[in-house]
């Protein structure tokens, strides 16, 4: 029972720290957010932060993983509403790109994330997204809906295009002006994978 209680307390502490950090990083940015302020906001000590995440960067990684995972789930839900799996895949990519306009996503995932955690394509949340995209591309290639392209390569380029479009939007001076250009180019690039009617 003691071990179970300890595990529950640890999980609660992790959640408190992630929630406090998410708010602090969104409002102030990772660099300006004080560890003392966010641990105080969570009602915990620096020791709890070090124990659960190693350091402030480890906490950022946990926050980015949570938000990016939520983004992927939201995008997949939008894609699932389409009857056509290809249109669903495009809708998913476009939804992910559009989320670059959200202040929390912009600041934490697309600006501070790459600056302090490195290449986003290596993040666990991005790899999960890649697996789901590859599986769908495999089915579309097998059914001759797409050209006979390597599914891994196509999935990496599709997810990479959506991610880089989102990064571009977040870093631009006028994100709302960039969004339609990015989505249009994403759709044009993606449709190059489609098989011609004669070869289906």
From TrEMBL:
Gene3D superfamilies: Tetracycline Repressor, domain 2
Chain segments annotated as transmembrane: none
InterPro entries referenced in this protein's UniProt entry, alphabetically: Homeodomain-like_sf, HTH-type_TetR-like_transc_reg, HTH_TetR, Rv0078-like_C
Keywords: DNA-binding
Domain HTH tetR-type, first and last residues per copy: 11-71
Molecular function in Gene Ontology: DNA-binding transcription factor activity; transcription cis-regulatory region binding
DNA-binding region: 34-53
Keyword Cell inner membrane (UniProt): no
Top-level taxon in the UniProt lineage: Bacteria
A Pfam family the protein falls into: TetR_N
Name this polypeptide is given: TetR family transcriptional regulator
């Amino acid at each position: 029972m003691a071990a179970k209680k300890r595990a529950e307390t640890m999980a609660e502490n992790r959640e408190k720290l992630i929630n406090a950090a998410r708010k602090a990083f969104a409002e102030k940015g990772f660099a300006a957010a004080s560890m003392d302020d966010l641990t105080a906001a969570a009602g915990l000590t620096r020791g709890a932060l070090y124990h659960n995440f190693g350091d402030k960067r480890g906490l950022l990684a946990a926050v980015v993983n949570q938000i990016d995972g939520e983004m992927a789930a939201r995008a997949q839900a939008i894609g699932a509403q389409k009857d056509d799996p290809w249109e669903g895949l495009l809708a998913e990519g476009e939804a992910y790109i559009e989320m670059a306009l959200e202040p929390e996503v912009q600041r934490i995932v697309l600006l501070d994330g790459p600056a302090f955690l490195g290449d986003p394509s290596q993040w666990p949340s991005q790899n999960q997204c890649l697996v789901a995209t590859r599986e769908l591309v495999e089915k579309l290639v097998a059914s001759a809906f797409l050209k006979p392209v390597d599914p891994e390569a196509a999935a990496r380029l599709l997810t990479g295009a959506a991610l880089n479009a989102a990064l571009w939007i977040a870093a631009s001076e006028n994100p709302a002006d960039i969004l339609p250009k990015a989505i249009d180019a994403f759709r044009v690039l993606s449709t190059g994978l489609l098989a011609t009617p004669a070869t289906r």
